Each structure stands twice: as C-alpha cells, then as structure tokens.
Amino acid sequence: MGALFYRSALGYTQIVSKVRENLKRINIEGSVVYNEPMAKHTTFRVGGPAEVYIRPKNSADVAKVVQYCRSSQTPLFVLGGGANILVSDKGISGIVLAMESLHHISLSGTDLLVQAGAGVSEVSAFAAERGLGGFEFIYSMPGSFGGAVWMNARCYGSEVAEVLREVTYLDTEGNVAQMYPAREEFSYKDTPFMKNPWIILEGKISLTPADPNSLWKEMKEFETDRRTKGHFDAPCAGSVFKNNRDFGAPSGQIIDRLGLRGTTLGGAQISPIHGNIIINQGNARAQDIGDLIDFVQNQVHTQFGFHLEPEVIRVGDWT
Ligand SMILES: Cc1cc2nc3c(=O)[nH]c(=O)nc-3n(C[C@H](O)[C@H](O)[C@H](O)COP(=O)(O)OP(=O)(O)OC[C@H]3O[C@@H](n4cnc5c(N)ncnc54)[C@H](O)[C@@H]3O)c2cc1C
C-alpha cells in the first residue's frame, strides 16, 4: 500500500468539481491537471487516469494538499518515479501528488540533503562528481530518492538504509516531522514508511570521500550490468517478487525452474532474459500484467508450496 490516506465515497465528477472549487482557495504554487493518464508516469507504461494530478512546487504546497485531503476526505496517492507500481486500467480516484518538482540536492560536508523527487541516479552522480562514495550502488536504478527511502531500495549488495541518517516527512496531520532512522527499523524491503501513510519530503545521507574516477567506473559497470540483464529493453518495474531467503533461491531462479520465462498473457510477458521481470510488450493493459503476476504466484505455490510476495504495488481501482 502506498501513501493512500483517505478513502472517499464520491464519484469522479463529484471529486473533480469539489477539488477544482477548493484548490483555488488553498492556492498552491504547483500545477494541477485533471484526468491525467498514469501510463505517462509509470515505468510499466500502463495505467488509467488520475482524477486529479498535482505537482507541488514546494513543501508548503505538499502540506496544503495533505490538509485539504484530510479535511475533505479525498483519497491521496504519493507518486515518485512510478518505477515500482502497477496502476489499474481504471485509474486512480482522488489526488495523485507527484513529487518530481521537489528535486533539489545540496552538499553539507560529506552529507547530502536530498529532496524526495530527485532521481536516485542524479544523487549518485552528484555525489561522485564531488568525490563522495556510498550511494554509487543505486546508479541507473529507475525511481526517486523518496521512493527508494520508502521501500529501502536494494541492489548490488547495498541498501539505502546503510547511508540514510535523517528523514523529514509530513505526518498524517500534515505536520513536518523528523526521523533519525535506526538500522533495526529498516530491513529488506521494509521500513516505517511502508507502515505509516507519511510523505517523505527530504533525507540526509552520509557519504565518505572517494576517488571520482573509481566511483564513475563502478557506476558505469552497474549500468552495463542492468543493460545486459535487459532492464531497459522494454517497459517494466524491475523485480516483480521479493526474494525470500527461506525459499533457498532468488525468486527469479524459482520461476525459471518452472520454465516460465517468455510466457505471455495479453500484452504482458515474463522476460525471456529474467524470470522475475514482467515486461509490457507494447500493448499490455495493467490487467494483463496483474493477471500474469497472479499466474506466476499460483504456479509457484502449486508446484513448490512457496508464496511469492509481490514487490510491485498495485495502485488504483482493482475491483
Ligand atoms: C528497470 C528497473 C530496475 C529496478 N531495479 C531495482 C533494484 O535493483 N532494486 C530495487 O530495490 N528496486 C528496483 N526497481 C524498482 C524501483 O526502481 C524501486 O522500487 C524504486 O525505489 C521505486 O521508486 P519510485 O520513486 O519510482 O517509487 P514509486 O513507484 O513512484 O512509488 C513506490 C511506493 O513509494 C511510495 N512513495 C514514493 N515516493 C514517496 C514519498 N516521497 N513519500 C511517501 N511515499 C512515497 C509510493 O506512494 C508507492 O507506495 C527497479 C525498477 C525498474 C523499472
């Protein structure tokens, strides 16, 4: 579940006209569009419209929108880079708050202060150019800094929590709060943010001096490795299922044992290169991808008795 706060019984036209009326009053500096296709904002390139799509310009805008949603009981979903979500063909009711404009990165000694909407690759590049190491592992992974903190993104043997020192977020009341993450609160794809509907505004990561050339060399190797694994060949959201160590093998290998690579369902396909990646062949509906995820999960359960836990989050109306 994402940062989806408030459920509403109102239909589309009612929400839109109510929001149109009220947004003038709350006066945000960012942009507001209606009926925005989410396929434009997700790496799967699928998903129906967001009823209201807001790009806040600053934290004050975010707070105003949260307070508005709270007082009007309007549903709210926070969007980072859209690299780990599957949005329903029916779209998302209420407001989607896209953090992309809050992307400032600044240096303080060997720490970086990073706004939630900054791309993780931009953060790695910013650090490498200044001779700071510790965040190179995530270079070329799609997604925003906020999304990576939200789920403690992990790759090449490292995870975000290893360098994360401080997070500024908005709580459910719309108040700004600070967290100094304790290592034990962050584990494999598990963080306090996944359990609480808070909005990450900014984080501080602590890095260490390193040679810029060596950092770039390593970063380019990660990028090449992802390219070789077909990560950028077709729209996808990276790994579909989490890796559960109790199963004795990565999810991709378990799926491979069933010979499922290349299986298609509508416009969705299990990548011919990697069993734990599902791709949009160009004409997939979100439903095709969702059904293929369910199919793999059922096959693995029937054959091996393991329940693979999806990593990709379904968002919007899946009824
Ligand atoms: C080709 C490819 C390769 C990938 N490889 C990896 C990998 O190696 N390792 C890995 O861990 N992941 C990987 N992923 C998945 C994805 O990149 C990560 O999960 C990433 O951290 C998602 O960030 P995002 O900004 O796109 O989040 P989104 O998909 O936009 O959102 C994901 C969740 O985070 C929440 N969220 C986002 N921003 C905020 C915020 N500011 N405040 C509160 N909640 C927020 C959303 O509400 C949602 O619930 C890959 C994806 C692709 C497409």
Q: Could you give a quick summary of the protein structure above?
A:
This protein is of the alpha+beta class.
Primary descriptors:
five-stranded antiparallel sheet, Uridine Diphospho-n-acetylenolpyruvylglucosamine Reductase, domain 1, binds flavin-adenine dinucleotide, four-stranded mixed sheet, 319 residues, single chain, disordered N terminus, Uridine Diphospho-n-acetylenolpyruvylglucosamine Reductase, domain 2, 24% strand, alpha+beta, 3 domains, Uridine Diphospho-n-acetylenolpyruvylglucosamine Reductase, domain 3, 7 helices
Which structural class best describes the helix and strand composition? alpha+beta
What oligomeric assembly is this protein in? single chain
Named once each, the bound ligands are: flavin-adenine dinucleotide
Unreliable segments (pLDDT under 50, ≥5 consecutive)?
1-8
How many domain regions? 3
Query: What is the count of DSSP helices, taking H or I runs of 4+ residues?
Result: 7
Q: Quickly name the level 1 CATH class of the largest domain.
A: Alpha Beta
Let me know the average pLDDT: 93
Helix content estimate: 25-40%
Quote the CATH topology of the largest domain.
Uridine Diphospho-n-acetylenolpyruvylglucosamine Reductase, domain 3
- What series of H and E elements makes up the topology? HEEHEEEEEHEHEEEEEEHHEEEHE
- Cα Rg: 20 Å
- What is the correct CATH architecture of the largest domain? 2-Layer Sandwich
Q: Largest sheet, if any?
A: 5 strands, antiparallel
**Overall morphology:** globular
Strand arrangement, largest sheet?
6-7-13-11-12
First-last Cα distance: 15 Å
Q: Count of DSSP E strands?
A: 18
Proportion of strand residues: 15-25%
